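Let's study a protein:

===
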Amino acid sequence: MISLAGRDILHAWGKFVFTGLGLGLLIGVTLSMAGIYRGMVDDAEILLDNSGADLWVVQRDTLGPYAESSSLQDDLYRGILTLPGVVRAANVTYLTMQVGQGDRERRAMVVGVVPGGPGEPGQPRFLVAGRHLTQGHYEAVADLATGFRLGEQIRIRRNLYRIVGLTRRAVSSGGDPMVFIPLKDAQEAQFLKDNDAIIHQRQRTLANPALNRPGQPGLLEAVLASQTVNSSVNAILVRVAPGADPDAVAGEIRRWKRLTVHTRAEMNEILQAKLIATSARQIFMFLVILSVVSAAIVAFIIYTLTLGKIREIAVLKLIGTRNRTIAATILWQALGLGAIGFMVGKIAASLWAPIFPKYVLLLPGDAARGFGIVMIICVLASLIAIRAALRVDPAEAIGG
């Protein structure tokens, strides 16, 4: 029966090859959709790995700093450092914006970190060239995906920064590459108001009669000073001591500092349940639609090929060929078509994955599961053609 199916495929090899190519491109898109989802999950995990933190301390009752905005005073980390089980605590800011380089711009997540070595929380961990941030101002470490090179100058808000290091796989949960700059510069970029806004705010403050009371001479000056200085951060990254229980340390911070603390497991759940969930459902719907379309294409092609061989099938029946052999021949043709399509799809997905703007992660396990699903679809799609073949009257071989 396999030989019979093979001979029939060789007889009409052009139809099978071109049909396999078309089906393969569709399967390639399906595999790429699954790879995009895997890439989103991997981006979220890499984001947490790059932070180098065991705990994320954020504004009370928020899901910050990635799923929601969060604002903390930048001196709170000192009190956290005094708690038992805490080894390191460092401020960090996150701001997604356009970063300029010459005449072009690149969307990136600008991360403000405390300058230091690779052991500091928030510092990029996978440096491939250059060095980490050591100066307090106007240095940057960029991800390779930004396209920036060592020694280049980039523009963030009003200031220029020199690229002193390059890292890889430093991305936000949305897949935007990261640019690391010193914390003070990042605070200025994110929180400092421009000159016009400061002037207008001062004018409104000076016109406020409540701040010009005779018995409070220093109140107006204090308010004016606070309007030009903003010492806020988005989160505090905490690393616990070896052997310490992160949940216990998080409980101490919540108890004494009255702040929200997320552990690694909680932050991973926030990223996947809050940020990726909607995209995951959309991708799942696309996968279902593509699977249905693939099944319909295979069913239509096999059914069309079967109808084109009605006379040959009638001759087989007339010479005594069993229905089981005819059905197996059609089934093997469908499986052969699916195998050709899957090989083309796997090759196509591997070739165009690096071109995608988002990270596409093609796992061998997903490919194996995809191959199994393709074979099941081919089996189901062949049932219509098998049913039509078994209903052929042997007399048609004579009457044709």
Notes: The chain has two domains: 2-44+277-399, 60-192+230-258. Residues 57 and 261 are 5 Å apart (CA to CA). The mean pLDDT is 82.
